[in-house]
Amino acid sequence: MLKMHTLMSAMLLGCSISVASAWEALPTKAPEPTNNVSSVDKVTLGQMLYHDPRLSSTGTVSCASCHDTMLGGEDNRPNSMGVNGQTGGRSAPTVWNSAFNKVQFWDGRAASLEDQAAGPVTNPIEMGMKSWDEVVARLKSIEGYNVAFEKAFGSNAVTKENATKAIAAYERTLITPNSAYDKFVGGDKTALTEQQVRGMDKMAELGCTTCHSGATFNGEGSFQKFPVTTNGFFEAQHHFSKDKGLAEVTKKPADEHFWKVPTLRNIALTAPYFHNGSVATLDQAVKIMAKLQLGQEPAAQEITDIVAFLNALTGEFPKQTMPTLPPTEGRTVIK
Amino acid sequence: MLKMHTLMSAMLLGCSISVASAWEALPTKAPEPTNNVSSVDKVTLGQMLYHDPRLSSTGTVSCASCHDTMLGGEDNRPNSMGVNGQTGGRSAPTVWNSAFNKVQFWDGRAASLEDQAAGPVTNPIEMGMKSWDEVVARLKSIEGYNVAFEKAFGSNAVTKENATKAIAAYERTLITPNSAYDKFVGGDKTALTEQQVRGMDKMAELGCTTCHSGATFNGEGSFQKFPVTTNGFFEAQHHFSKDKGLAEVTKKPADEHFWKVPTLRNIALTAPYFHNGSVATLDQAVKIMAKLQLGQEPAAQEITDIVAFLNALTGEFPKQTMPTLPPTEGRTVIK
User: Fold this and answer.
1) Does B118 share its domain with B223?
2) In this structure, is residue A291 part of a structural domain?
3) Contact status, residue A267 vs residue A282, Cβ threshold 8 Å
4) Measured between CA atoms, how close is B282 to chain A, in angstroms?
5) Per-residue model confidence as pLDDT tens digits over A94-123
6) B228 and B147 share one domain
7) Do B39 and B167 fall into the same domain?
8) CA nearest B291: which of B222, B241, B228, B236?
9) Is residue A129 part of a domain?
């Protein structure tokens, strides 16, 4: 397969980018770690945990509240709302296809879906549980969870580690194949409109696909700096640089403003945009990215073409059956 | 079929209540008003609206947030949490089998599911939309809803009236048949344990089934006074009388402390109990009801038997497919 720099050279030679083999369709199966091989029982348990608001202090916020699989895998809000109406500074990334990321969270601070799943549950402004000990105690007090954990992991299995493994196993099923783009790449040249093909070529020509590369259009979640260049106008409007990204975690100056590249898959469904959700529309997002990352100012028609192509990255959402959450007969675990 | 007062006479004559014909299985279809005959398209639209948090000001609260079909049809909280973490004074009733109620809300102030559905959306502490005009404008700005309303109701159909009709049509599908009790009433005498049959008989003997009557165990949502008698101990603990029920709406002294009788169907799944959610467990709820409504103090074993029977009223929850909510490509309707 052509590497992106080879592709760029090809482009400079005047080749049609849209038919180059570097464009990849989305795999229908996500990679999984050797210590968390999937099973039907794990996925079943994980889907329950993912949708259970009793994993939050108030009983009102589940993973699905901010990463809503019915709504593009996130919440369409600038930033998410956790327990007691609290909000943070970042916009919820989509859960769909997150299984293809090498790292998780906007700042990439989690090395796996398992690590990621552990975070929000005890974050005071997200799900607000005091500790995972409290979470595990609550889960153990729900008979149906004892049964489901045993099925998935064996006896005495209600632990933080297994809960996050089950959630991750479920998330690995959340893949959206067969977008118009995937069909096009698979050989159906009628799957994209002429405008969408123009947008596709333009993205490669501008250099968008240098970072938004590969099947998930994010280098599988590689790190890149944003913004690369400072622009007073956009900074005054959107305050992109206020949040230092990876450096907020590592405290290293070299990591300032480094972020996991977000996927462009289903990007049309995940407005508003950027780490702080400060950009309302996709065309404005494209305009800002071109300027700040590539020093380019595409014409209005070119931006429209690119947005048309980005709409072709909306995949098919596999139908899901709602889980029935394990009950607590005659009592509740929420105070 | 024997009426309840006939049944009570039969009981006094020493008949076995549990085999009397007044015990009714749950119908598998709910009644519907002539001006809102159901259709697949209405139910499909209604399920989307029911699960769409964009019907709230913050984009975080849907009907399903407080009436969660995955969790017994409510939220297991003493009182529900609306937009921005606000709470009110009442506990969310279950949506399951609500289609059989003649009136809706704890105080019965809505005459139909259609009327009920209109309320929370614009309640400032629930879903917080400024007005239904605002809701309709938001729905009209989502292309997929225009299509879904047209399928269900014809052209130019995005209105408050049709939105609430669709939600009601969906809610009329939320029926939980085939509980152990239903099987028993249907002729399977092994479906209940001996203890559950004792509890069933005891409920009729005490008089519980005078109000908790019929297939839904609530006289289809008739009005009754609660508490009938005042008890300083329970009042100090639970403040039942603070909320005047129907009179809060009608302002008539005669309506003070009148409430729609809540269903006992799936009651084991809907703790905590009473209009203010102040009673944590089902056995305590039975004890309080016996004392305040009937002047009775059943023995501990009798309460345990009744609770065992109430657990037999948990029905089968039909599997539901999660709706995909209509997207807003490249933008959001949430500020």
Assistant:
1) no
2) yes
3) yes
4) 5
5) 999 999 999 999 999 999 999 999 999 999
6) no
7) yes
8) B228
9) yes
